[in-house]
Design goal:
Blueprint (H helix, E strand, L loop, with lengths): L2 E6 L1 H5 L3 H11 L2 E8 L3 H7 L9 H8 L4 E7 L3 H9 L12 H5 L8 E3 L3 H11 L13
Antiparallel strand pairs: 1-3, 1-4, 2-3
Bound molecules: adenosine-3',5'-cyclic-monophosphate.
């Protein structure tokens, strides 16, 4: 089954949005395969955001994501990568549609509440960065 990496960022945790965000994914019909509240070490943040290392906001990005606890998760379900991106809304919350997570809860691009993998390759890479294989619940599938 398709899996994606979803992370409530430090602003979302601080604003008590973890439950709201988990609830949205549960109601949609996706299945939580792993989840943990954690502080991200600087090295992990730099690796996670490696594709942005030449961007002018890279330093700000790493310092923000390491500024407080995040809630890292793996969700699974049919089409979960693309559907989660739709549920999150545009990267810049100012442009995100109302009804999406960023559209409902965010204002600034640097503090945009949530991160989600943008492709199957990113999902595999990000899940492996944050979780061990043994952390992922293997749900029994009905035949
Ligand atoms: P995320 O989906 O976590 O992936 C990369 C992040 O970079 C993105 O969300 C934004 O939070 C952040 N980002 C993108 N553009 C900018 C910017 N211009 N200034 C600061 N942060 C940005």
């Amino acid at each position: 089954m398709e899996k994606t990496f979803i992370m409530v960022k430090p602003d979302g945790v601080q604003r008590n949005l973890v439950g709201e965000i988990v609830h949205r994914f549960e109601r949609k019909g996706f299945t939580l395969a792993a989840g943990k509240l954690m502080s991200i070490p600087k090295e992990l943040a730099e690796e996670h955001y490696g594709e942005h290392k030449d961007k002018p906001f890279f330093g700000e990005l790493v310092s923000f994501i390491t500024s407080g606890p995040v809630f890292a998760m793996v969700w699974e379900g049919e089409g979960v990568i693309g559907t989660a991106r739709k549920m999150m809304g545009a990267t810049n919350p100012a442009e995100a549609e109302p009804g999406t997570i960023r559209g409902d809860f965010g204002v600034q691009v640097s503090m945009n509440v949530i991160h989600g993998s943008d492709s199957p390759e990113s999902a595999n890479r990000e899940i492996a960065l944050f979780f061990n294989e043994s952390d992922l619940i293997q749900y029994k599938k009905s035949v």
